[in-house]
Fold these 2 entries.
Entry 1:
Amino acid sequence: MRDLLHLAARDDFDRTRATVARLGGCTRPIALTGHTTTVDVTTGEIVHAYASTEEPTGRLLLPCGNRRASRCPACSRIYAADTYHLFRAGLVGGKTVPDSVRAHPRVFATLTAPSFGPVHNRETSATGRALRCRCQTWHKAADPALGAPLDPAGYDYTGAVLFNAHAGQLWARFTTQLRRELAAHGDLPQRDLPGELRLSFAKAAEYQARGAVHFHAVIRLDGPEGPTTPPPPWASVATLTDAIRAAAARVALPADSTATGTLQLRFGAQTDVREITPDDGHHSDRAVAGYIAKYATKGAEGTGTLDHPLYCTACHGRGTHETPDGRLNDCRNCDGTGQAQPPASLPVRQHTRQLIRTCWDLAQIPEFAHLNLRRFAHTLGYRGHFATKSRRYSTTLTALRNDRRTWQTEQARIRVGRPAPDPVATETLASWRYDGTGYRPGEEPLAEAIRQERATALQLRHEAKKPARGTTACAW
Ligand SMILES: [Zn+2]
Ligand SMILES: [Zn+2]
Ligand SMILES: [Zn+2]
């Protein structure tokens, strides 16, 4: 508070406040120092110049852009909104996609991991009634026991971690196999498929309570030119559904090592495939885009694990440093463990801790060294992205961000009354350097005030939409 008062006493307080406001409440902004100069190429005249020294703190602050709600709630909301628009455009059209895609076969498919041993669960009957777990209790929805093994000693932790570590690769094989299955349905040699049909998809990875990664994907069939052309009549929703089920059941990936033997990694037996409908139902295009955007902002935190890497950064998790004459010395930072923190002290449940330990142990097996399991112990071995899409599905996150940046730059130009630059006759020279993360003393309370303001505004908007208690819908 003293820092804030100190800041408030300065002449440029309003500008500091405006700078923090533009970050939208970001938790850990990125600071840059440097300058940008726009020059008229013909006359050599400086059209516009900006340097971070013009800022009250001498630094330009940018939002961190983190996708995880646990890291930065403000930036993760923007990421979720962008992801939503990206998924939605591929379903209903918009951005670069024509709205005729609504007539193409589109499904929402869920591919899960196989069983690694029975876990505590809370299944519901067809009527939505909670059923009893195999341990004879009715678990509550928030019970931390959910997803934990009934018999921890017999649970296949090696299989669970190796599945996560290969899940991205298994998905890639699945898409190749899916093209093969579709070609077989159309009675075509595989090389002729692109001349008739294109496969587009967007997927999000999510963790189940047991810590296994699973994929939710929107899969769409287009004609040979992509979303602008219809697929051939034989390529129906039923064909796509059959092909997905067959491909998911068929793909396998061997994971070999002398220590663990050969393991065939596969997807689980239950592949859920639903047609996406244009109406307002549970599987309407809008609802599906919403689910996927929500999954994409969650990391493994949902399963009670951690949102930051667990290896010692001084030795990159190796536990040793090599001396110039080739000897190995224990890393002093981690006492040779390679861990930033001993697993026993991590604030996670026992099941998650065991998955993290398994990542650590498997990393020592030479055949699994390429899996980088120490680097990815906090994601329980999963090394892929949380939201991905094929090239022709819709626009990209980068394109959406560029659009927003162009719009913001244009608004700023209008605000200060600067003339529009002529892109042909000007050249922009820029030099920027990273200068740390986070706020300076005094700025954080300002950011917190902005977060509060936004949260209240969201709450009010939400309240306004909700019908008051006890009222019934008006018949008129
Ligand atoms: Zn942020
Ligand atoms: Zn149970
Ligand atoms: Zn170390």
Entry 2:
Amino acid sequence: MEPISIQVVGGSLGGLTAACLLRDDGHDVTVYERSSRELEERGAGIGFLSATAKYLVERAGLDIDEISVATDHIRYLHRDGTVAHDQPHRYYFSSWNTVYRRLLGCFDADRYRLGHELVDFAQTADSVTSTFSNGAEATSDLLVAADGIGSMARARLQPRAQRAFAGYVAWRGMVPEADLPAPIVEQLADAITYFVYANSHILVYPIPNIAGSVAAGDRLINFVWYRNYLDGGDLDDLLTDADGVRRELSVPPGAMSARHEAEARATAGARLPGVIAAVVDATEDLFIQSIYDIEVDAMSFGRVALLGDAAFSVRPHAAAGTAKAADDGWALASALRNEPHLDAALGAWETSQLALGRSLLARTRDVGSRSQVTSTWVPGDPDLIFGLHRPGD
Ligand SMILES: Cc1cc2nc3c(=O)[nH]c(=O)nc-3n(C[C@H](O)[C@H](O)[C@H](O)COP(=O)(O)OP(=O)(O)OC[C@H]3O[C@@H](n4cnc5c(N)ncnc54)[C@H](O)[C@@H]3O)c2cc1C
């Protein structure tokens, strides 16, 4: 296909990956991001699957070891801290900030427009016009909506695709290695370390620090702890921050209610192995993200395409959310290259990416249910290995 004009709405990892790829193919691409400042997420960790790394490694020429931390074991602990299971397995872990900064550096600064919140859009047979909250308008051949779990575009185009609470939230935190006793860092630095107990599990892994350093001693130890809450009053209370404001999906570091933060720290001390409880204890500010499933039955709507979490939002148990968003971008660029017309390209793209979203959602629901509902996780079960298309891949 000839190059076209494309507006990408949402300038996080999914939007930026797609924008870079489409720009590389000669399309005229502009990114519109709601946030008025470059995005900051205090560096939370992500399992760094190959699809997320692919642009930075293959196109930007970065070494995977510059942008992530490798671990060589999957390890499960007993409550008393002894090893229940250990298997050799290579994972890479990075942080949201590290990947965002690198991708942002690959895109044209004057085509990355901050402070542009999409509030409306209208399309004709061959163009789409967006309106932003600052009064700006943009018209292009294609709108790629990469506006995340709360997507305005999805709400308009797929009103039936409501988010469904999974029944649990992720309690999270990061601690500088330097703030932990050396023996604890030593036990945690070469592995993803799990502890699984009644209707819950926690996982711990090393990540680059906020400045992106991956040097031993500079890194952070990151944890993600899945804990169950009832939808309704129980969840409302948890999501009500220290100032009494009911947050929508997450409560950021420093804003948790003191009561809930104290409960989580006490539970960590009482129920988790000492080495993991020490990480929770040393974390300055805990924060939470609630876990939702979102499923769409279409991703392309004339001149608008939904990408990443704006289409399917999946539970984090495959560590594949950013990888799915990136894969949506790679597949879109390839469809635009290979098909003679935009409609055909979007049709082919939608078929493959709907299948990917559905299979990932089903797999992550199953893994989540085994941990949080039926308590049937078996350490070493190959189904539990992270992966985008299937466990391990
Ligand atoms: C607990 C937890 C753990 C996770 N762990 C992992 C992991 O290990 N590995 C992994 O790959 N993924 C993980 N994920 C998933 C991952 O964070 C998401 O899948 C990923 O961030 C989706 O990227 P995205 O670009 O589609 O959307 P987002 O990152 O949500 O970005 C959406 C962007 O759109 C902007 N925006 C929103 N509305 C508008 C608007 N109206 N106009 C303009 N801009 C707008 C937002 O400001 C934001 O910048 C995890 C998620 C959770 C909750």
